[in-house]
Design brief:
Elements (H helix, E strand, L loop, with lengths): L2 H18 L2 H5 L2 E8 L8 E2 L1 H6 L1 H8 L4 E11 L3 E11 L1 H6 L5 E10 L2 E10 L7 H21 L2 H5 L2 E9 L2 E4 L1 H13 L6 E3 L4 E5 L2 E12 L2 E14 L2 E10 L4
Parallel strand pairs: 1-6, 7-13
Antiparallel strand pairs: 1-2, 3-4, 4-5, 5-6, 7-8, 9-11, 10-11, 11-12, 12-13
Length: 256
Amino acid sequence: MTDEQQIRTLIESWAAAVHAGELTTVLADHSPDLVMFDVPPPYDGVRGMDAYAETWPGFFEWQKSGASFELVSLDVTAGAEVAFAFALLRCGTPDEFEVKPDVRLRLTIGLKKLNGRWTITHEHHSFPHDDQPTPVVAAEIGSVLDRWGTDTAAGDLDALMEPIADEVVSYEIDGNYTGKTAVREVCAAGLASSPNSISFRVPDPTVVSAGNLAVAWSIDHVTADGTETTSRATRVFRQSGSTWQLIHQHLSYPAS
């Protein structure tokens, strides 16, 4: 085999061993002074074979939840004594891929030819940092709340329900409701409670976010038949693809 083919076979065997949880094969063909930059800390890298070996048992346990570790692409460049490869892998659980189907683990490997055999001296694993800045998320959540105002005024129940997750749990003023069907019935009753258009406004929501979750809290203003009421609201949203869906809300009045 050419050097490139030897390295490709080495890395493919390593990836298959990782997925199978075969520690001996995972550790094979690695230099004793290996340095790995991994997804979790330490930030200055994992150094040496003992430290490298200690990173894998926990990962193998996580894989037992149904997670995958599969090469998607692999490119190899080899010189006479030094080589490097870069790859993309599907690394995640089914639930994670449902939310972010295109996420990939990025891998760069450095190799040396030692005693006539290609040996891994460096690994760098990472995921792209795709957290959106909070102001961007706040604007997107604000758009959802504004849309609810527009749809409430129009009495459009179907549109109101679009940003609501099937498994939503809602602590409403008059009770607790689980599931989109139950929340739909609450919204339908609210729209039917007034013969006139109802106004729903959230003037100044506060939003914090991390990853695919965002929390918003606010004072809601609802006007029906000329009477305005305000209530306290905490809402949790989960990003699914390019949209945000409500998975939990808690509404209340202060105790008198």
